[in-house]
Structures are given as C-alpha cells and as structure tokens.
Design goal:
With 283 residues, the protein is an alpha/beta fold. Helices cover 38% and strands 15% of the residues. It is built from ten helices and ten strands. The strands form two sheets. Strands 3-4-5-6-7-8-9-10 form an eight-stranded parallel β-sheet. The protein has a two-stranded antiparallel ribbon with strand order 1-2. The chain is globular. The N and C termini lie far apart (37 Å). The model has no long low-confidence stretch (mean pLDDT 97).
Length: 283
C-alpha cells in the first residue's frame, strides 16, 4: 500500500480503500460534518459510520458538500442492534439511506452478532437479517455486505442459511489485541479484516513501548499504530476530529516497521484492553 487511495480487493472484486475514516463517538452536527470534510480533503476516500453512532445525517451532509464525486467515495454503515430480522433490517436500511442521502451504499455490516434483544434466538434473527442483506446486495443497493464483531461460531451459524459469504469482518484489532482465532478463520475464508479502534481508544499513547517506537521511527504513536495495522493486513479505521491529526494519520506510507517491531506491538497483550465478548454485551 502506497497511498490512501490504494485498495484491498474484496471477495466479490469490489475495491475498498486501504484506510477508512472512523466516526464512532463523533457527535452529530457541525463537528462530524467538519471532520468528515477534513478527512476527504486530506485524501481519505473511505468513510465508516453506523446507525448506532447517530451521526449518519452529518456524514451524509459532509459527503454532499465535500466537492468529491460520490463514485470516488466508499461509504460504510452498520445495522443497529435493535433491528435484526428480515423486515426490521429492510426498514432500517431505508432509514440509513434516507439519513445519508445516498442512492447506494458501498458496504453494509451487521454491527453485532448477538444483541441482548435477540439473545435467545440470535441465529434465527441473523439468518433473517442476512437474507435481507443478500437481497439488497443482489439488487445493487449495496456493493458489498459483511459483519462486525463476529467470531467463528457466529459466522458458522450464519453460513447455515447464507448463500453469500460475508466479505468483511470489522473487529477490534489494535496493539496487544489481535483476536487470532477469529482473524485466522476470516483470513482462511477471504473475509477482509477491518480494524476499529486501531489506536486503542486513546490508551495507546501511555504505553512505554509505543513511546519508544515513536522515537525510534521519528513518527507519532498514532502513525506507528496505523502502519502496524497495514503491515498486519488489516484495514484500519482511525478516528479524529482534529484536522492536523486527521492529516497526520494519513501520512503512513513513506516508512515501514521492522518485522520484529510488528511482532513486538502484537505481543503487548492487554496494553489497551481486549475486545468485549459479543455474547455477553448488554446492548
């Protein structure tokens, strides 16, 4: 990968820019609009949002006002935890499209596999949701479909009724948290790994080993993290609302981490915590 516009190729041949701009915890309104516009101005062409983030309106406004044509952008959203099942999924998708103001979505994900509202029948609910996803995909409303926070048993349950394999699994992948079992399972099935919270939700900046690596390479800790994600084969989704940091986070293509340092970062087990268990989350 040599630039923000370089792409991974999904299993269906769709190209997805190698770094996405994350919007989790970015409040709806001017802050979200300005940060997404700043990201696009900095060269990002991949924007990631979700119904649960409650900022799809602002992401859509930024896309409309950014001055870059829609076909040059790759836009992702995710299904809310309360909307699983065929009928609810279809209605929720229309709501997302209305908020974003788009005619099609590049990627739509099931945000969590086992929400508390469906805990006693999550397999059935996911089957209905995925049926809707497949119909939206085959109708051209969505260019690619995938999942988020799914582990192997969730994917295996989904594939009992699915006819299209998920193309992406968006997971918490960051220094010290590589979810090897789930990640290896996805790799073996050509499911691209997207890394949310690639900076460990800010905790990474206090880790002494990362501070030392930043000094070694003459880079920011955030840049080290993002470069590490790319060298691990992930698609990182860094988030910031600061224009200078947004630009800085994009400047990761003119250096490379030594293989030993890539492993060192992976081995910082628990340095920013671990991914939560999707089967016990209370939302």
């Amino acid at each position: 990968m040599k630039s923000l516009t370089d792409c991974y190729k999904l299993a269906n041949g769709v190209e997805i820019p190698c770094i996405g701009f994350g919007t989790w915890q970015t409040p709806d309104g001017d802050v979200c609009v300005s940060s997404v516009k700043a990201a696009i101005a900095a060269g990002y062409r991949h924007i990631d949002t979700a119904e649960m983030y409650e900022n799809e309106d602002s992401v859509g406004k930024a896309i409309k006002e950014c001055g870059v044509s829609r076909k040059e952008l790759f836009v992702t959203s995710k299904l809310n935890n309360t909307e699983h099942g065929y009928e609810k999924t279809m209605a929720a998708f229309e709501g997302t499209m209305e908020k974003l103001g788009l005619e099609y979505l590049d990627l739509f994900l099931i945000h969590w596999p086992n929400p508390i509202a469906f805990r006693d029948h999550w397999q059935e609910a996911n089957a209905g949701t995925w049926k809707a996803f497949e119909e939206l995909y085959k109708a051209g409303r969505v260019r690619a479909i995938g999942i988020s926070n799914f582990r192997q048993h969730h994917i295996e349950a989904l594939m009992e009724t699915a006819t299209v394999l998920p193309m992406v699994n968006q997971m918490k992948l960051c220094p010290g948290e590589t979810q090897e079992e789930a990640a290896d399972y996805c790799r073996s099935r050509n499911i691209l790994l997207e890394a949310y919270s690639p900076l460990g939700t800010g905790q990474i900046f206090q880790v002494p080993e990362m501070q030392e690596l930043a000094r070694k390479y003459g880079r920011s800790i955030a840049q080290i993290c993002i470069r590490w994600s790319l060298q691990r084969g992930y698609l990182p989704l860094p988030k910031s609302v600061n224009p200078a940091r947004i630009q800085e986070n994009a400047n990761v293509f003119d250096f490379e981490l030594e293989a030993s340092d890539v492993q060192l970062i992976a081995d910082l087990k628990g340095c920013v915590g671990y991914a939560s268990d999707p089967d016990t989350r209370t939302f």
